[in-house]
Amino acid sequence: MNSWIRSQKEEKIYIAVMNGQEWADTKECRNNLCVRPFSPSLRYCRMERKRDRLRIQMETPSRKSETKEFYYSIWIAGNLFVIVGEDDFLVKNMTEIMKKMDEKTKLEEQDEKWAAGYLSSLLEQWFKSILKDDLEFLQSVELEIAKLEEAVLKGKCPEFNARMLPVKKQIARFYRYYNQLVELSQELTELGEFSEKESKENWMNGFKERCSLLAGQTQIIREYMIQVQEVYQSEIEIRQNDVMKALTMVTTICFPLTLVAGWYGMNFKYMPEIYSRYGYPAVIFICVIIIIISLIIFKKKNFW
């Protein structure tokens, strides 16, 4: 378990990041929070309020396509701020936030509501940090899709579906995640504890606007993926049309040749060409003329 203690005069704030087992073993902490235990089965972002205790359940999708998402909970009760989860990102992120908070605290004048303001700022920094590089990540996904589209147009993407499916699932998870954050920020704003001052109201509204922006950008990428799939389907249809066109040309050329072969394959007694010295060369000449005329017609009709 990683923990921090920050104090001002007689007030103290306790901050901790722990995993599920440490949470289960810390009875005193759970008794102070007095809410339901951490449950990784709640796989969505939501908020739960009970008296003066606040619980925020988070589901954060992974930026790596081979992994889906990780889950954690944020608990706030009085002067206690606890994050419960299994991912190493939680400890690393909180360590960086505490460094920023310590630098910020040195520059600000502390008032009688220092603890409430500190917890609000801590929650603000946490929410900002989880979205810090998301716009750049979405741009990289869009660039990957653009490269995939270019490969499709060049006919060099035989594994299109295998490459597109993981990206589609990942973007769908992020789209759901951002919309849940928009709803969560709305609930926190209505709660009132984070909008007492104008500055706090601004950060909560700013967080909501950023989530909406990211959700809109994700929706644009989803629509772009649909367009790329349509391009891929069009390329398949074009190749199928080319194959059908080639088969049609071969059939058209072979039909008169088959007619000639069938006509002279009857071998009736009184067919003059059967006993003619130039009958066989004449049939070959006729067949060649038929092929040449057919190719000229195809060329004029832009069949090839």
The description of the largest β-sheet is:
6 strands, mixed
The CATH architecture term of the domain at 1-109 is 2-Layer Sandwich
Strand order of the largest sheet: 1-2-6-5-4-3
Number of helices: 8
Described by its quaternary structure, the protein is single chain
Question: CATH fold name of the domain at 1-109, please?
Answer: Beta Polymerase, domain 2
State the name of the first-level CATH class of the domain at 1-109. Alpha Beta
Strand content: 5-15%
Overall geometry: rod-shaped
| Unreliable stretches covering 5 or more consecutive residues | none
Instruction: Give the topology string: H per helix, E per strand.
Output: EEHHEEEEHHHHHH
The H-level CATH homologous superfamily of the domain at 1-109, spelled out, is CorA soluble domain-like
Helix content: 55-70%
Q: Find the count of extended strands (DSSP E, 2+ residues).
A: 6
Distance between the termini: 72 Å
The secondary-structure class comes to alpha+beta
Mean pLDDT, to the nearest integer, reads 80
Based on CA atoms alone, the radius of gyration comes out at 36 Å
What does the model show?
InterPro entries: CorA_cytoplasmic_dom, CorA_TM1_TM2, MgTranspt_CorA/ZnTranspt_ZntB. Mediates influx of magnesium ions. Alternates between open and closed states. Activated by low cytoplasmic Mg(2+) levels. Inactive when cytoplasmic Mg(2+) levels are high. Strands 1-2-6-5-4-3 form a six-stranded mixed beta sheet. Helix 5 (134-153) packs antiparallel against helix 6 and helix 5 packs parallel to helix 7 (198-264). The protein has helices at 20-25, 27-33, 88-107, 114-130, 134-153, 160-191, 198-264, 279-300; strands at residues 2-8, 11-18, 46-50, 53-61, 69-77, 80-85. It is 63% helix and 14% strand. Among the domains are: 1-109, CorA soluble domain-like (Beta Polymerase, domain 2, 2-Layer Sandwich); 238-300, Magnesium transport protein CorA, transmembrane region (Methane Monooxygenase Hydroxylase, Chain G, domain 1, Up-down Bundle), CATH 1.20.58.
